[in-house]
Every structure is written in C-alpha cells, then in structure tokens.
Design goal:
The protein is an all-beta fold. The protein is 0% helix and 48% strand. The strands form 4 sheets. The chain has a 3-stranded antiparallel sheet with strand order 1-2-3, with no helix packed on it. About 7% of the residues have low confidence.
Length: 122
C-alpha cells in the first residue's frame, strides 16, 4: 500500500488500516447497520444493502425515500435529503427552492424548483 492510503481489511471489514511512512496502523472498524461488507472492483468496503429514490414533480408533488407522496404548493426552500448522524461517508445536502413564476428566465412553469446539491468532508 502507498503512504497516505487507507484500506478496509478482513472478511467482515473488521479493520481500517492506514499506511504512513511505510508503517501500517489499524483500528477496529465495522459496517453500518444498513451496510454489508463486500469486494467491489477489487476494493473491500462497506456497501449499502439497498437504495431508494426521492423526487419532486410538478408544482408541489414530493415522493420521499420511503415511497410516500406529499403535496405542498407553498413557495419556500426545502431540504430534500441530507446525511443524518455521524458517518465515514461524505456529508451531503440537497435543497430545493420553489421560485414564484417569472423569477427565472424560463417562466413556462408555475413554480419551478432550483436544486442545490452540496457536499462537504464533515
């Protein structure tokens, strides 16, 4: 392994090891409760057990990750998805701002949404 590289080792992803100046330092590690240990593209790691989708349609129809659909016609900024709690995964947040008609260049829509996906290291 190269200096600065971090790898997950063990059949159960039980060790997280970092290589620094030719020395490997390991600590206990485990996958999250909705993850399983597997090898993908030659790299061992924790992968989600499943995936889900959320969406916005039209002027106020929202479907959440659990498949429920809500109608909300108000104009405001909403958080659609974000990482909750502590995680080794990159933090992210997706917001949508419903803009009243005529405030965007394309005013064909009554209430278009402006999506703002952001990521950060912590």
């Amino acid at each position: 392994y190269q200096s600065g590289e971090t790898v997950i080792l063990g059949e159960d992803c039980g060790r997280r090891c970092s290589c620094t100046a030719g020395s490997m330092t390991c600590s206990p590690y485990s996958c999250g409760r909705k993850e399983s240990c597997s090898v993908e593209d030659g790299e061992r790691g924790c992968r989600p057990n499943g995936y889900a989708t959320c969406w916005i349609r039209g002027a106020g129809s929202y479907q959440t990750f659990d498949g429920l659909t809500y109608q909300y016609a108000g104009a405001c900024k909403l958080t659609l998805a974000k990482l909750m709690g502590s995680s080794d995964h990159p933090h992210f947040k997706v917001t949508s701002e419903k803009v009243p008609k005529g405030q965007l260049m394309d005013s064909r829509f009554d209430c278009p949404s402006v999506l703002d996906p952001t990521t950060s290291a912590s």
